[in-house]
Amino acid sequence: MTIKEYVNQQTIIKGDELHPVISCASIVAKVTRDNLMTKYAKDYPNYDWDKNMGYGTKSHYEGIKKSGVSVLHRKTFLS
To answer: For the chain, which end, N or C, has fewer CB atoms within 10 Å of the first or last residue's CB respectively?
Structure first.
């Protein structure tokens, strides 16, 4: 079975250094994610999302130990 969805895809190693449009997309994605983490911090205050922007920090892992995982946590990341 062949997946045709990505037939015309091209991988560009270090594309963000070579193509401004990739650099811009990376910045937009980072800012969007940071804004989401700030919003999630209000909805789920036990995890310090606004302090770690989604990356594991000591306080974030302590929040998981104390409150368990939220619906936002990627279960595959924790295993």
So the answer is: N
CA distances from 51 to 23, 30, 69 (A): 24, 14, 17
* Distance (Å, whole) CA 72 – CA 79: 15
pLDDT one-digit tens code per residue, 20-68 = 999 999 999 999 988 998 999 999 999 888 887 656 788 888 988 999 9
Rounded Cα distance between 1 and 78, Å, is: 31
What pTM, to 2 d.p., does this model score? 0.67
Residue appearing with tokens 């989401």? 36
HEC secondary structure over 5-59: CCCCCCCCCCHHHHCHHHHHHHHHHHHHHHHHHHHHHHHCHHHCHHHHCCCCCHH
CB 54 within 8 A of CB 33: yes
